[in-house]
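Narrative of activities, Objective 1.

The group set out to show that a structural description can be obtained from nothing but a protein's sequence at a throughput compatible with the screening campaign. Below is one input-output pair from the validation batch, recorded exactly as produced.
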Amino acid sequence: DKLFAKVSVKRVHDSHRKILACGKLIFKDEIIEWIFQLHENHQFNFLQCSVFGRSRMLFYKAIARILFLKAGTDENIVFKFLAPFEVILNKVLGFENPEVHINSDNSLLIPLIGSLKDIRGIFTSAMTSQQYLAVYKWFSSRYLDCMKQVVEICLTQPKVITGALRLLEELVYNRGNRIQFDRTSSEGLQLFKSISAVVCTL
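Output recorded for this entry:
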């Protein structure tokens, strides 16, 4: 909690307490940097096992908090962190090869379920409008409208449906008034239409 509050209280000279800003220092740690670079790496065994779905969501929720602190106003840092998910989703949804997608290869269901939980964890940590919009901009640019297709194809796959609906639930959860689209933007309408399409499909 102290870390995520961006400060820690530390005793100095056994007589005084000093507030030290440590949030901006932690991502300079070699291990933290390694996690940022290889967070989809196979060395994280629990990410390869479907029974640890909740653990992987909490994993991404935790590192996303540090990510947002590191990124500040630089959306490119967030986009770079999210890049590995593009590789998975592009393959699962057939963007990479139209002949290989979840409708033709059931082995892609597990990485799809995992990615839905991972992205949900990241959205959960987006506490401010700026943080939320950075992730939303990435997700809505290519994958939001595909959720209807995912639901249509996987109606007989409850784990996929559950993962997709929980992600969309988090997407529209206006926690702390974080969803603040520009008045001249059509993003709010797009979000409403995309969510409505999924609901109508079910």
